[in-house]
Amino acid sequence: MLEVTGLKKVYEGKSRTVEAVRDLTFTLDTGELVCLVGPSGCGKTTLLKCMSGLLEPTSGSVRLQGKEVDGPPPGMAIVFQEYGRSLFPWMSVRENVELPLKQKKVPSARRKQLVDESIAAVGLADSHSAYPWQLSGGMQQRVAIARAIAYEPQVLLMDEPFAAVDAQTRADLEDLIRSLWKQFQVTTLFVTHDIDEAVYLGQRVLILSKSPTVIRQDLAIDLPDERDQLHTRSSARFAELRAQVYSQIHRPREEQDAPVAAVAPAVAGQP
Ligand SMILES: Nc1ncnc2c1ncn2[C@@H]1O[C@H](COP(=O)(O)OP(=O)(O)OP(=O)(O)O)[C@@H](O)[C@H]1O
């Protein structure tokens, strides 16, 4: 449903040229939850901007349901890291969630239903009329997630959405993402630099190299579908997968010319 083919992005400046992304090819199938993990500065944000039509790639292409992305596609929603800047402070929670639906010209009764449903799904049913500045960071990020889900996107892109919240809130939000994904079955690409988070959340993890970026490995996560912070993270299989991702990211540069092909799980995972 989403195909990235030979994507390359070079930033040409007056004084310097940066090859941020060298060659990325991967696909997302309908309904998948895929994590993309890579070191800081490896071009994750650049990739998302190209995927969402905000930035033109130097070469290669992005296709959503067979159609080339050459501007922000109507079926895509993005949740950014900086929730503080993505919500309008003068609008209530409800108005923030409703705004894109008005722009999409969703009829008023359906709008109300989508807003109610998505605010309840992120656990903020009591905070409809609050303003973003009256909410904690984690609650603000829940609003941003509700807004994305209410939009009923074909694809949801998330750019390090939990990087700015504390560890406990982050764990809660990770579980929220898994439960929303099951409830709404939105195809999701979740970008993070946190290896544990990628393994905990994803059905697959795409591991990126350091810049100039290529895909080191497309790793199937064969953990049980029911995951929880305590048991999943302390399982032996989780530790093995985490070690595998870590070693790929930290592979010496001279070895990085030989990417590892997609790896199928060797054994069914045990909790
Ligand atoms: N507008 C720009 N002009 C020039 N270079 C840029 C621009 N945006 C990003 N870069 C460079 O491209 C490379 C990749 O940056 P990008 O922000 O995409 O990485 P990232 O993986 O998202 O980083 P982080 O994890 O730290 O947020 C970096 O070397 C960065 O300096």
What fraction, in percent, of the residue positions are helical?
25-40%
Radius of gyration, in Å, reads: 19 Å
* Run of helices and strands: EEEHEEEHHHHEHEHEEHH
Q: Number of folding domains?
A: 3
CATH class of the largest domain: Alpha Beta
* Class by SSE composition: alpha/beta
Number of strands: 10
Quote the distance from N terminus to C terminus.
Answer: 31 Å
CATH fold name of the largest domain: Rossmann fold
Low-confidence stretches at least 5 residues in length (pLDDT < 50)? 261-271
Discrete helix count: 9
Q: Provide mean pLDDT, rounded.
A: 88
Main sheet: strands, sense, barrel: 10 strands, mixed
How are the strands ordered across the major sheet?
5-4-1-2-10-9-3-8-7-6
The fraction of residues assigned to DSSP E strands is 15-25%
General shape: globular
* CATH 4th-level superfamily of the largest domain: P-loop containing nucleotide triphosphate hydrolases
Catalogue the ligands.
Answer: adenosine-5'-triphosphate
Report the CATH architecture of the largest domain: 3-Layer(aba) Sandwich
GO molecular function: ATP binding; ATP hydrolysis activity
Pfam family, one: ABC_tran
InterPro entries: AAA+_ATPase (IPR003593), ABC_transporter-like_ATP-bd (IPR003439), ABC_transporter-like_CS (IPR017871), ABC_transporter_ATP-bind (IPR050166), P-loop_NTPase (IPR027417)
Keywords: ATP-binding, Nucleotide-binding, Transport
